[in-house]
Amino acid sequence: MVANPPLQPGINARSDSTVITPVVASPSSQTAAPSSSPSQTPPLNQEPDFGHLFGNVIVRNLCNETKYLWSVGAWFLHGPRNSMTGWGSPEDKMNHTIAAGQNYTEPFRITCPPAPNGTTDYCQDYDKLRGQGVSIKISNNASNEQDILQLEYALLQNPLRNDTFYRLEYDVSLLDCADPKRQPSLFNMSSSAFARNITDGTATPADHDLKIEKCPGYQNGLHVWFSADSDGKICEPIACDGKTLCTQIYNFDRMRKGEPSKACKEKYVGDMVLDLCSGNAGS
What we know:
Layout: E1 19-22, E2 56-61, E3 67-72, E4 96-98, E5 102-107, E6 122-123, E7 128-129, E8 134-139, E9 148-156, E10 167-176, H1 205-214, E11 222-226, E12 238-240, E13 262-263, E14 272-276
Parallel strand pairs: 2-14
Antiparallel strand pairs: 1-5, 2-5, 3-4, 3-8, 6-7, 8-9, 9-10, 10-13, 11-12, 11-14
């Protein structure tokens, strides 16, 4: 999965740079419009985040219900931090409401590359937490406590694989909705001792039905697509029907062979679009 260490409340705020726009009916024939919103305000003597030069993340709510969204990670920290002071920012806690038939749009944010020795610390060049990607958390309620669907991404030039350009990495996770470890009663299991270890390989249709029921925006499918790469030659799209177990995303296994984290093959400039309840498109 895209690296995203635990977050704690921070101390610095910025102006909101998100835009809510009407949904386009058919993703197969339309391109999502880029956001004209500014990038986040940088701290003193720090260059602005240039992620907006690559494009935007767009979440389209094609569901019949309102969704709530938090965009967490890779914000400016406004000075050195450590594990004692915490890595979080006020932006992590900003709640965005997306009514049915509306979009949420924000510019990409750049990720500070990981250290060769694997340490997680303050990244002075970017004024961010080293190696931290972005997690866009989507819920059916404004409390953001559980039953979260996540679109995770990192936009970075990774020295560990000798990248010569800023590469977009991304995945979709259903791990925090209908989670057997957090909600064992849903799966008829004891909280003290699990009756069985549910994995993507052992999950029953009934187990997956709980994902369909509890994971926001998964009903009737979800779709991740790229506005400037309609044939998927640069960035592989994600298409789940919301009916059968989807191997392109994280369901029950946090790590597995052939894990569903994806990365664009080349530099990508354009929008990454997540359609919630994608089967409703055009209805």
